[in-house]
Structures are given as C-alpha cells and as structure tokens.
Amino acid sequence: MNSDMSQLWCYLSTSPLLWLTVTLLAYQLGVWCFQRCGCSQLLNPVLTAVLVLVLLLKLSATDYQTYFRGAQFIHFLLGPATVALAIPLYREIAVIRKSFMPIIVALFAGSLAAILSAVGIARLLGGERILLLTLSPKSVTTPIAMGISEQIGGLPALTAVAVVLTGITGVVIGDLVLNRMKVHDETARGMAFGIASHGIGTAHAMHKSRVTGAFSALAMALNGLLTALLLPLLVSLLR
C-alpha cells in the first residue's frame, strides 16, 4: 500500500496540473481565512497562500522549478490582468484628467522614494552592490521589476521575492499608515497603494472604491514605466 502511494505521489508531484490546483486551492483558503477573520489585512489572501505553498513545498521536498511548471499558467495571466486594469481607468477618466498635475508630482516623488529607500536601507545594513541593484525596483510589478533588475545587473529571481514582500507589506500596513497620517482622499490613497504596493496594492484598492482602484491602477502602470526609464539612468550615472 505504501509503495503504491509513493508511486502515485511521484507521478502527481511532477504533473503541472497538481501544482496549478494546489496554488488555486491555497489562494482560496487564504480568501476564506480573510473573510472569516473580519477581513483583517494581517491575513491577506496572498500572504496566506504564499505561506501555505512554502510549507507544502518544504514538506514535500519539491523544488521551485517543478512547482513553477504548474504555476506558470497563473504567471502568464499577470499580463492580461494588468492590461484589464485599463477598464477602471476608462471609467474614471474625467476625474483623472482633473488631477493631472498632482498625479505627476506624486508619481515622481513616490517613485524616487521607493528606489532610494530600498537602496538606502540596504546600504546602511551593509548590503553589497548586487543586492542594492536587486532591491531597487522592488515597488514595480513583478514582470517589469525582473526585467529592470536583469538590465541593471541585479538578480531577477530575488527581485521577484522582494516585489511580492513589498506588495504584501504595503497592503498589511498601508491603511494603518494612511489613517494615522489622516490621508482620507480616495485619489491619494489609490496613488499610494499603486506606487508602493503595485499589483497587490491595486487589488486591495479595488475593494475600497472604484476611484481608489482606478488611481491605484494608474499609479502602478505609470510607476512601472517611470522606473524602467529612470532606474537604469540613475545606475549609469552612479557608475
């Protein structure tokens, strides 16, 4: 019996369908825990799913390459999901046009703050140059951040980890920080989540209101574009 179960596991563990299903179930578990606990951001569905998946991979001694053969189908959907954010932007286009100058100012300030804070903290803690380059695009959505990291000489895989952690951290403490700073304007909160916490923050903002979600989506997209242009230039100047 044990031999049969072992053979079955060996077969299933190499199947892309298994880890695709496990990923979806882990996220669904995260959503269930989030809703059952009063929508506390300490139990953010993404954070819960990540912890469950790490635990399962560790217990089953499954390497990341095997897991990603199944998870790549979800990874592929990041592109279409990002493009689909144009819909809430279109719905709130009149509000966005009225706030053009504040958006530009907030975008430059937020983008520079995201880059300099990551590099500065890592430098103060004794991080090496390659680590500084790896962390610098951590507030940009994953596909763009990995591309920037590779271009400037960082480690794209580690950048992806930093991006996910940044997004989760921003969602967990974002509302608390903004409330303490008495920032209640929907457009300002949306810009903050989009610049600081990219896609994960935008998903959170979508649950707040249409305006917050639209401005977060706009900020995420523009921050990705600005960082892709600005960061390589800053790195070349520092060299």
From TrEMBL:
Location of this chain's protein in the cell: Membrane
InterPro entries referenced in this protein's UniProt entry, alphabetically: CidB/LrgB (IPR007300)
Domain of life: Bacteria
Pfam families: LrgB
The protein's name in its UniProt record: LrgB family protein
UniProt KW keywords: Membrane, Transmembrane, Transmembrane helix
Organism: Trichlorobacter lovleyi (strain ATCC BAA-1151 / DSM 17278 / SZ)
Membrane-spanning ranges: 6-30, 42-61, 73-91, 103-125, 155-178, 213-238
Topology within the bilayer: Multi-pass membrane protein
Major localization listed first in the record, in broad terms: membrane
UniProt-listed PANTHER family: PLASTIDAL GLYCOLATE_GLYCERATE TRANSLOCATOR 1, CHLOROPLASTIC, PUTATIVE SEROTONIN TRANSPORTER
A GO CC term assigned to this protein in UniProt: membrane
